[in-house]
Amino acid sequence: MSKVVFEKTKGLTNKEFSYCPGCTHGIIHRLVAEVLEELDILDRTIGISPVGCSVTNYEFFNCDMQQAAHGRAPAVATGIKRVRPDNIVFSYQGDGDLASIGTAEIVHAAHRSENITVIFINNGIYGMTGGQMAPTTLVGQKTTTSPYGRDEKHCGKPIKISELLSAVPGATFIERVSVHNPAHVRKAKKAIKKAFEVQIAGKGFSLVEFISTCPVNWGMKPQDALNWAEENMIAYYPLGNFRTPEEDDK
Amino acid sequence: MAKVMMKGNEAMALAAIKGGCKAFFGYPITPQSELPEYLAKHMHKHGGVFLQAESEIAAINMVYGASGAGARVMTSSSSPGIALKQEGITYMAGAQLPAVIINVMRGGPGLGGIQPSQADYKQVTRGGGNGDYYVIAFAPEDLQETVNIIKEAFDVADQYRNPVMIAVDGLIGQMMEPVDLDIEVPKRELAEKTWATIGTYGKRPPVNINSLFLDPQGLENHSWNLAKKYNTIKEKEQRYEMVNMKDAELVIVAYGTMSRIVRSALEELNKEGIKVGLLRPITIWPFPEKAFKEIPESVKGILTCELSTGQMIDDVKIANNGKLPVGFFGRTGGMVPEPEEIIKAVKDMLGGLK
Ligand SMILES: Cc1ncc(C[n+]2csc(CCOP(=O)(O)OP(=O)(O)O)c2C)c(N)n1
Ligand code: SF4
User: What residue in A sits closest to B91 (Cα-Cα)?
Assistant: First the structure.
């Protein structure tokens, strides 16, 4: 008799992912979905899809979803949560979406300590539109709109969202994680769980930032992209917790 | 209830509560700030939510979220703020989400001024955002009509699953007028919001609120479905008032504050024996084209009067379809004409027609 060693989570539909091979969007989807199932909140969760490669993830998450305008997911989440405080609300956003066009919305959602959870994908690039520079693109990194490498004199140094938001008094839980190897995948899942638990407890704004890969637009093979993320992105974007409610309780 | 004296903005806020509004998201801007201020004070007493957003963009996207989650929701603003809301409005039209949007219009372009204006007619009636869509737009002329329409607007929005805008000007917002907030307004038969994202609770498959159609055939089908809905609205929702039409030589087309000034001018003209009628659009989208079929044979010309340099006149020309000469009188920038100026414009036009 065969034994089931891996079962797909109920948090995902049967629809096949639209992501490129080696893209870590998919891993992060699975982790979020597993947490929703494990915390037994899937049937009262409302998710918000961004504009970016994950724009159609309303087809992947097996819960009610709303698709938001570019960068506005935290405002849409606010509208939902304010009229339905008993539902669990999360947004899923890339770094063009959250760290560029949607900076006002994310800062003020944190500032009001909206009781929502934000899944923030930092892949240092605009994936969907074909690899343009993001505010998170590393100095020297080549993209289609920084063809000679990002020049900090021209467009500044990459923005650190977790650090920035942890300076907002309303932010309750902020953690930066990575999914470049199995050990970190496990840690990342713990952070997601914690973030949703903060929301379930009604403690306010939670965000998990993921160091993520875009092998296609980085021009790398999947494994090289994971290595590059580990060596370069984590060096600039340190992993770890920036805010927890416990810290505030002290 | 008897009539009470209320400031326009506050009466509009109370009308929203009476219309069943359960959530409000907005950002301060003159000349409508008393409206959110009133709701900040009173909304919670009626089990509703009031939240001041960080911008109009955020406010309209909060409206999107709340509406998508099934709530009766409203926002209010004035011209430059409405410009910022256009992104959210086109998303709502695409995702077929109802909401009520109050636009207390002021002068433009740019920061413009804070005095009454109708210079946003095109922004309101043409759908200020991208894509093939319209918002249903009412342009009442006094406070009583405004509060009645606000109360009804939530039903209209729900019936058609489309944003409804109520375009008034700063005069209606700022003026104290006697108003009865308990006049019965027609109720519509409304379907249950089975499309709303409220959590599946294990009772149904997930639903989603969405305006994205990557497949062109899918988007074409969706667009034609919307067009069909807009045609139904054009057929069923045109609203207008015809005043003094019998034996009229000239018809003035005017709405909102301008139509009130025209009424005063008509009285004077009547005394002088000059017969002029008023065609008053109450909906500006759909534009009341049907009213033009009721213009009597005695009429020799149409004079469009607006608080702008001439915007509704395009719709008047389309509805008139070349039948009668169309003239224009306008003041703008926050300048409001005296009835005498309209009387003169009428006489000038009639003189030219003879
Ligand atoms: C208002 C608006 N501006 C620009 C775009 C085009 N656009 C689509 S996705 C995107 C960037 C997405 O990048 P990111 O958020 O980093 O997500 P990724 O695709 O990398 O997952 C842009 C600029 C849009 N759809 N809407
Ligand atoms: S373009 Fe990049 S971010 Fe988008 S799916 Fe492909 S690898 Fe992932």
Answer: A69
Rounded to a whole number, what is the distance in angstroms from the first to the last CA of chain B? 51
Domain B4-237 in CATH 3.40.980.10: no
Q: Looking at beta carbons, which residues of chain A come within 8 Å of B57?
A: 72, 75, 104-105
User: Please, where are the H alpha helices in chain B?
Assistant: 8-18, 34-42, 56-68, 79-95, 121-125, 143-160, 170-174, 216-237, 256-271, 289-292, 312-320, 339-353
Report the percentage of chain B scoring pLDDT > 90: 97
Q: What are the domain boundaries of chain A?
A: 25-249
Write the residue in A78, A87, A111 that is nearest to B62 by C-beta: A78
Q: Is B80 left (phi over 0), alpha (psi -120 to 50) or beta?
A: alpha
Q: Which residues of B touch A58 (CB under 8 A)?
A: 208, 210
- Residue-level pLDDT at B353: 86
Sheet holding B136-138, edge to edge: B49-52, B23-26, B73-77, B99-105, B163-169, B136-138, B283-285
Cβ–ligand 2 contact at A19 (below 6 Å):
yes
* Interface residue B322 vs chain A (CB under 8 A): no
Residue ranges of the domains in chain B? Answer: 4-237, 240-353
Short-list B121, B201, B190, CA closest to B155: B190
Is A131 near ligand 1, meaning CB less than 6 Å away? no
* C-alpha dihedral (A113, A127, A46, B128), degrees to nearest 10: 80
Using the beta-carbon criterion (under 8 Å), do B61 and A43 form an inter-chain contact? Answer: no
Task: State mean pLDDT over A17-40.
Answer: 97
| pLDDT surpassing 60 at residue A161 | yes
Q: What mean pLDDT comes out for the span B5-17?
A: 97
Which chain B residue's Cα is nearest to A40?
B201
> 0.95 exceeded by the pTM?
yes
C-alpha to C-alpha distance for A180 and A203, rounded to whole angstroms: 30
Q: pLDDT (tens digit, 9 = 90+) per residue, A61-119? A: 999 999 999 999 999 999 999 999 999 999 999 999 999 999 999 999 999 999 999 99
| B212 chain-A contacts, CB cut-off 8 A | 55-56, 67
Q: What is the pLDDT of residue B1?
A: 63
pLDDT digit string, tens, across residues B215-256:
999 999 999 999 999 999 999 999 999 999 999 999 999 999
The model's confidence at residue A230, banded by pLDDT at 50, 70 and 90, is very high
Question: Which fold does the domain A25-249 belong to in CATH?
Answer: Rossmann fold (3.40.50)
Across the range A19-48, mean pLDDT stands at: 98
Specify whether the CB–CB gap between B131 and B94 falls below 8 A. Answer: yes
Domain range B240-353, CATH architecture? 3-Layer(aba) Sandwich (3.40)
